Amino acid sequence: MNILFIGDIVGKPGRKMVKKFLPSLKKEYQINYVIANYENAAHGFGVTEKVYKELKTAGVDIFTGGNHTFDKKKDAFTLLEEKKILRPLNYFEAPGEWYYEDDNIIVISAMGIFAMPYGKNPFIELNQFVEGKDKFIFVDFHAEATAEKRAMYLMLKGRVGAVVGTHTHIGTDDLEIEDGTCYLTDIGLTGCRDNVIGMEAKAPIAHMLTGLKHNFDVKEKCEAIFQALLIKTDENKSVSAKKFKAVGEGELYVSQEVEVGV
Ligand code: FE2
After folding, report:
1. For the chain, percent of residues with pLDDT exceeding 90
2. What's the pLDDT tens digit per position in 82-139?
3. How far is the CA of 28 from the centre of ligand 1 (A)?
């Protein structure tokens, strides 16, 4: 099967890029599942029911979360209770599910520990959870520290189909497949490329200059980037992967590619 993953979709510019590129990608590559991280989709902070519907209509099938899952608490609770989105496994008590499962696939939403909300240890939880599962397992590991992402990959290598990082919004160039597990430290945002992690640069710069909190905002007009990872699977393993990118008004291109065969 073919799986497409889109990382942190940041605000309207990110959603616009998804609507622009996803329908044709879905058709061209006969994609069975589109997974996307929604946690910044509503103006950078969380998700609303309206934004969820917009992305669902654009072609996203499974929605993973992160530290901003509960920013729009009322909408998030409703969407989680209706099982339309996932929330990270780390939360002790929260509505909804942290993984999606059907006959072909298990999709996991998990957060790291460093600079993340206080919660369960994702390493202990996933080390136990994947045991004996006979399906393709995709893990969206939403973490700040690259070491945590790498450690999660090496712990799960050969036991899951893919470990792909989100949260830092900056795409890395270390795509690989080993023992049937596809890994990328961070897929990078889909949203304003010429900002600071998708946010208008003024507030982050002022915050860094003064130490005082400033309200982060998503600019309506910016040079947006689209980033998505296509994974081809065979049974429970990854056999090839392609990272797609498009910047501004430019065409879609393949920025990284790896193929190991069956
Ligand atoms: Fe995040």
Report:
1. 93
2. 999 999 999 999 999 999 999 999 999 999 999 999 999 999 999 999 999 999 999 9
3. 30
Q: How many domains does the chain have?
A: 1
Q: Which residues surround ligand 1, an ion (CB under 5 A)?
A: 66-67, 167
CA angle 221, 45, 57 (to 5 degrees): 75
68 is catalytic: yes
The domain of 151 spans 2-259
- Distances from the Cα of 124 to the Cα of 89, 117, 131, 162, 163, angstroms: 11, 17, 12, 18, 16
pLDDT of 262 > 80? The answer is no
Q: Which CATH number goes with the domain that contains 241?
A: 3.60.21.10
* pLDDT tens per residue, range 192-227: 998 888 889 999 999 999 999 888 889 888 999 999
Question: Rounded to the nearest whole angstrom, what is the distance from the C-alpha of residue 54 to the centroid of ligand 1?
Answer: 20
Q: Indicate the average pLDDT of the chain.
A: 96
Catalytic pick from 43, 68, 169, 214? 68
